[in-house]
Amino acid sequence: MDKEHLIKTILNKYLRGTATPEEVRQVELWYDSFPEDESLLQDADQKEAFRKALVFRIISKTTRRRYRWPSVAAAAVLLIAAGLGLYQFTAKAPAALKAELVNVPFGTHRSIKLSDGSVVHLNAGSQLTIGAGYGKKERKITLSGEAFFDIVKDPEHPFLIQSGGITTTVLGTSFNIKAYPEQKDWQINVASGAVKVMREREVLAAVLTADKALRYDTATRSLAITTMQASEVAQWRNNILYFNNSSLEEMARELERQYNIPISVQGKQEGHYKISFNKQPLPEVLNILVDLTGITYTTEDGKIIIHAQKPN
What we know:
Elements: H1 3-16, H2 21-32, H3 44-62, H4 73-81, H5 84-92, E1 100-103, E2 110-113, E3 119-122, E4 127-130, E5 139-150, E6 159-163, E7 166-170, E8 174-179, E9 185-192, E10 194-199, E11 202-209, E12 212-217, E13 223-227, E14 241-247, H6 248-259, E15 263-266, E16 272-277, H7 282-293, E17 296-300, E18 303-307
Parallel strand pairs: 5-6, 15-18
Antiparallel strand pairs: 1-4, 2-3, 3-5, 4-5, 5-8, 6-7, 7-10, 8-9, 9-12, 10-11, 12-13, 14-16, 17-18
């Protein structure tokens, strides 16, 4: 399909209301890229009519037909001259304007390289969304789960990570974020460089440097910054399960993600534990926890049930 035909097809579909959501978005983004002044138009209906009139005029131009549109002719000429920009917009930058979703199933890890050379290592059960237009003005992504970031420095394009209500801003550094939806407290551990952490408009840490860890309790909104050696950050990348001041429930959730098997905890236990495993077979890990915490566990229908207190 030649470029004029492509333009006409997309714009006709836009006018008829049959364009796909992606095509509608492309037309509207392309239209909004022009600095025309709509301030003289009083309401949304007038603006929409004006927009469709301009689009229709562009179609007529591409088919060499003549229409009289005196009220919009001057502005239309400017847009007609730039009309081929839509073709360039759709032909050259569709990938940059489309968000990309990366899912990592339980029991697996995945590493991806972004277009700027930055690398993201994703832990089991995580989801990463690379924003539309990544790298054009800023480098914005959304994380649900846990990931270690090794970010290429680019002061003109800040790197932003959105995790729920928490925003982490970096210019070039390496760090780990753990923010699974079911987590009570979210964690950010810096291995090198520095990051800025905000929750909405509240600054949680203006500068969080290497060997520092931030834990934010989403329920109480309490904050704690502690020391954590860079060598301890994101050891999951080396198949080492590292628990630091973790509750029994938190360890169960991590084992569930890493071994891809449903694990539930019955009963309550208030203790917090610091221990690491070399991701040996799950029964070996559970038997160590039996000795460490006094729990018992049973297996039913492919599921593991951890009993925080020994059954009577």
